[in-house]
């Protein structure tokens, strides 16, 4: 099933299901500027609730409040933010995608779509801006070699979202810091120096002082691609509910949209892996951590004590 809710309708429906704070990365803000405008809007909103907030929509919203699996997607496409939230509870999945609003901290309409685990990865990727696959080859190099340079470079930090593994060069662990009460989006910028750009080595001079082109090492090729100008980028943080009852990140999958080229997926553990991806190929990559999350939640349910033990 599919619904499109204005921010005002989403906020009221969220109140009606006794939802806690609206989940990241959604940025739902009421349009009323003061209590008088709010009072004027309320009758129409209550009429909408009475006719449209049925059992199906209520159930979909409740899945957002306490999922077993969560995929938080935040990025940029040009000047606009990309906000998608995919969740699963049991056999039911819900994807909430918010259209860009008038300001970076204020989104527009929220689209809700229900489905199953088989459709979750493809549904999430379908809400990313369309982009052809990159034209370059698949690249892979050890993280320490990618971070290294053959010439001094100013130190820099990779921006991260609070409570998540630290950017594309992070190795997700079994635990993460508790989520802040009001989580802010990661400092993702389309500028070529952030967050993936790492200076590459200078070419060696030739006999007469001219630069002699050399075949780049895998690490240099990775650095070179990550330093190119971009039209968009973002990350997906995949989390699963553990036996402690808390959702913990288990993987981070990033993407970059290289200007004049196309989209690449970036995945990092001990190696930085960069893969040109179509929408279908990107969904295939996302299915791997989702399958791991399913196994974790299945074990959690199996080990959970039942009443009377």
From TrEMBL:
Compartments (UniProt record): Cytoplasm
Superkingdom, taxonomy of origin: Bacteria
Record's keyword annotation contains Cytoplasm: yes
Keyword terms, alphabetized: Chaperone, Cytoplasm
Positions with biased composition (Low complexity): 159-179
Compositionally biased region (Pro residues): 183-193
InterPro entries, per database record: EspG
Chain intervals for the UniProt region annotation (Disordered): 131-193
Keyword Cytoplasm in record: yes
Family membership: Belongs to the EspG family.
Protein name: ESX secretion-associated protein EspG
Species in which this protein is naturally found: Nocardia stercoris
């Amino acid at each position: 099933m599919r619904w499109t809710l204005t921010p005002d309708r989403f906020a009221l429906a969220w109140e009606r299901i006794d939802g806690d704070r609206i989940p990241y990365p959604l940025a739902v803000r009421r349009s009323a500027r003061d209590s008088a405008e709010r009072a004027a809007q309320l009758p129409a909103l209550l009429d909408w609730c009475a006719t449209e907030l049925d059992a199906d929509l209520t159930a979909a919203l409740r899945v957002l409040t306490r999922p077993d699996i969560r995929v938080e997607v935040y990025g940029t496409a040009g000047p606009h933010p990309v906000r998608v939230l995919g969740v699963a509870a049991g056999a039911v999945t819900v994807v909430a995608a918010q259209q860009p609003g008038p300001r970076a901290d204020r989104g527009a309409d929220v689209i809700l779509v229900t489905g199953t685990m088989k459709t979750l990865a493809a549904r999430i990727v379908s809400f990313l801006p369309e982009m052809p696959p990159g034209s370059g080859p698949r690249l892979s190099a050890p993280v320490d070699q990618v971070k290294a340079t053959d010439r001094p470079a100013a130190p820099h930090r990779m921006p991260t979202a609070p409570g998540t593994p630290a950017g594309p060069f992070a190795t997700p662990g079994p635990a993460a810091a508790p989520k802040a009460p009001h989580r802010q989006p990661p400092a993702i910028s389309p500028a070529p120096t952030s967050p993936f750009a790492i200076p590459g080595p200078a070419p060696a001079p030739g006999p007469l002082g001219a630069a002699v082109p050399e075949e780049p090492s895998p690490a240099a090729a990775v650095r070179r691609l990550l330093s190119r100008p971009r039209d968009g980028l973002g990350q997906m943080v995949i989390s699963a509910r553990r036996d402690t009852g808390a959702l913990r990140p288990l993987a981070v999958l990033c993407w970059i949209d290289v200007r004049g080229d196309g989209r690449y997926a970036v995945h990092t553990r001990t190696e930085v892996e960069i893969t040109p991806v179509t929408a279908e190929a990107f969904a295939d990559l996302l299915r791997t951590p989702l399958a791991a999350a399913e196994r974790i939640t299945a074990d959690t349910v199996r080990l959970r004590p039942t009443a009377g033990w």
